[in-house]
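Archive entry: two folds, one per protein. Generate the first.
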Amino acid sequence: MNIRNLALSLSLLTLSACGFVSIDSPQPTPAEPAVETPNVGTSLRAERAARQFVSVVETVEPVAEAECRARTTGMNCDFNIVVDDRLNQPPNAFQTLDKSGRPVLAFNIPLIATVRNSDELAFVMGHEAAHHIQAHIARQQRNATAGAVIFGSIAAITGAGEAGVQSAQKAGASLGARTYSKDFELEADQLGTIIAHKAGYDPVRGAAFFTRLADPGNTFLGTHPPNAARIDIVRQTAATLQ
């Protein structure tokens, strides 16, 4: 974990959540600056959120890395957990790779601030780590490449020009990338359940996070499965861990 970046981001988290309220009485004279006091409640909530995040990282990260090493061969299992401190973003977490191939788990401030308990945060963290362990980025890229080849070839056979072939390749890549995305999410939910459980958290309680998300339904080209399906697989997996 990149402690330096995390510490800086967490300091920004605390500062960004500190609101101020003006005192209405007495009204300041033109030569007298308005008096402001910190919103203590907001500041304390930000501090609790920051401390909770650090605590969950410290317990989940080693479990996720151990699970990665146990399930893979030759994969980089040194997770770098970072905070996206951009403001005015919807709650979000994602997994990616840096230029050296090191796995990165990123969590933005709104997500850190809105999870209701450490179980929810641990489950989300386990879910994102699972995406890397199960090589979902590489698998998605292979699917996108296959889709591009198939669609491009069909366009060429049917007499499309260069622009038409390129357009077909883009459409095929997009479709290919989405083909198994729902399966990837359910796979990550399943392994994320195991990681959260091994780290000492309650993944079923953590999956309650889904109940506050807009349900994507079961659309053909949707990237995420219905929330009910995700909660079901968490419950089923957790039942085998008792």
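Generate the second and append.
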Amino acid sequence: MSEHIKFIQGNEVIVEGALYAGLNFFAGYPITPSTEIAEQLSARLPQQGGKFIQMEDEISSMCAIIGASLTGNKVMTATSGPGFSLMQEALGYAIMAEIPCVIVDVQRGGPSTGNPTHVSQGDVMQARWGTHGDHAIVVYTASNHQDLFALTVEAFNVAETYRTPVILLIDEVVGHMREKVVIPAEGDLPLVNRLRTTVKGGVDYHPYLPREDGRLPMSDFGGVHRYNVTGLFHDMWGFPSTNPEVVKGLLRHLIDKICNNVNQIEHHREYYLEDAECVLISYGSSARSALHVVESRRQRGEMLGLLELQTLWPFPYDMVRAKCKNAQFVLVAEMNMGQVLRSVKTAVDDPAKVYLANRVDGEFITGRDIRNILRIIMGKGV
């Protein structure tokens, strides 16, 4: 397959990226504004030898991809806020049982059924803490289609590398806008495939015994090895355990395998940060408006820069602190009540210099919305 160009929706870009990464099983339930993902895959996936199934709801969708992943498939589901809420218990199971899978959440207004056809970025904290208990999670986002394609592939790579669920958290504007995307030729982007055990059979296979590099080789469930899978704390054979050392060791493993590799997992883009006196921090479609403000104001001599986050969790505290070190002001632009703002305030040396430009009314945040806040904090006219 050679490189080719398409002009498509963001939801369709995710389909292209998932297929490029090797997706061969999708289970889902239609929900605005993510439905195009399921619709496209219902036709495309069987054409490539994969399996598509529409489930009765989002609970069963999440459970289906967990089962399919255990049998050796690269898997994905897609949903929006209400469906994402229903997936949280099974998401916790996938975290505990260390099952690779990708979950797409195309955000809409909430809570509850909220604003189904309008934009929001209100699921940031749900993506982090939606399932109960202490845990780590990987969450990617993007503001443009080329990055969205690459991060979709990266989501599958990270899921397979760390045996973990990965959430692709975009918003309705990115999901439904159309722009050019270059689909790379086969082999241009590296792919991580399932690490399978070399143990031939018998009782020597330990499904939860990490190698020296931290990776856990898997055996396709139903194959040559019989092993236990549970959402309970478990030992290296997969059997439930309440032994304090086993419980503590497993929990530390689940968190450390993500949090100790932030530098490998984290992605971002930066614009004009070298001399920025005011740093804008944004993500998703909000970052498009923020970049427009930065570039237009720099033409007037104002020293603005943009840090676009593409990894929301694990939050890159050290990177954000370093990029904002010399800024007089930091302005976070997002479409919620300040969910990333909280993490930025924790990251920077002086949280009092961090401000919020936001919208929560279902309308896209514009350059004017951001400039109105800039005018206040910088004491300058428009």
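Annotation attached to the second fold: The CA atoms of residues 107 and 171 lie 4 Å apart. DSSP finds 14 helices and 14 strands in the chain.
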